[in-house]
Every structure is written in structure tokens, then in C-alpha cells.
Design a protein that fits this description.
Elements (H helix, E strand, L loop, with lengths): L1 E5 L7 E8 L15 E4 L7 E4 L3 E21 L4 E3 L13 E3 L7 E17 L2 H14 L1
Parallel strand pairs: 2-8
Antiparallel strand pairs: 1-2, 3-4, 4-5, 5-8, 6-7
Length: 139
């Protein structure tokens, strides 16, 4: 996910979150994990994503229908059950017990909402030159 700031006249800059969707190229190319990348032209109609100084992808914004919510996932702490009560036979009094049958839980927290998705596809050499020309003309 990438963020970009957009200015609207005299209003203060507003931060927008954009989802980078690489599903369209995932079966065509291998993108190594943690590969360095450069995302340029976020303020144009067709931003360019360069991965590992080799692979060039061209993007196109797609408006979402409604609002897309983005969540983060983390491991939740295990649930402890503490035995309490006035039982003389209670061998576990004051002890915490973890249920071994309990599956690992995940904690999900909202991060932000999105209104745009940036879908990428492979760029041809002609499209690379055309996009570079449009970006230099917009500067």
C-alpha cells in the first residue's frame, strides 16, 4: 500500500491511501520478496512501478464501489483460564491454564479506508516511452 498527498486549491493536503494490486501480473512474472521498487507518477493517470530496476509495470486507477476497509492482522495473546472457587479439592487454585485444544487466534485491527485501487499490468517498450513522455510533459 502506498500513500499520496493530494492538494485541492486552498485546502490543506489530505493523505490518501491507495492499494497496489499486482494480481494481474502475479502469474506472468516472479516478484522476489523484499525487492526494491520505485513508484513514480502517482499524480498521473498511469503511474509506473519499477521493481528491482528490471521489471516495469504500468498502473491504472480504479475507483472502488463504496469504501474498502484495510485491516492489519497480528497474533492474539492466548486465552488463559484461571481456576477459582472455594473448593478444597481444587489442585489448580490460583494457576493459569492454557487450553491445548484452542487454535491460534489472530487479532484484526482496522488501519484505514480506501477509495482507489491501483491495478498494474506489464508494460511494453512503446508504453514505457509513452508514459515517460507524458510524465515529463506534466512536470
Amino acid at each position: 500500500m502506498a500513500t499520496t498527498s493530494v492538494s485541492h486549491g486552498h485546502e490543506e493536503d489530505a493523505e490518501q491511501y491507495v492499494l497496489l494490486d499486482l494480481e494481474g501480473v502475479s502469474g506472468q512474472v516472479h516478484i522476489p520478496p523484499n525487492a526494491p521498487y520505485v513508484l513514480s507518477g502517482l499524480d498521473t493517470l498511469n503511474p509506473i512501478l519499477t521493481i528491482d530496476n528490471k521489471l516495469k509495470l504500468i498502473g491504472e486507477y480504479e475507483e472502488t464501489i463504496g469504501t474498502c476497509l484495510v485491516f492489519s492482522e497480528s497474533d492474539a495473546a492466548p486465552v488463559f483460564h484461571e481456576e477459582t472457587g472455594p473448593s478444597e479439592a481444587n489442585l489448580f487454585s490460583g494457576k493459569c491454564i492454557v487450553d491445548p485444544k484452542q487454535t491460534s487466534a489472530k487479532q484484526v485491527n482496522p488501519v484505514t479506508s480506501l477509495h482507489k485501487i491501483l491495478k498494474f499490468r506489464l508494460m511494453s517498450e512503446a508504453a514505457i516511452e509513452d508514459a515517460a513522455t507524458k510524465q515529463s510533459n506534466s512536470l
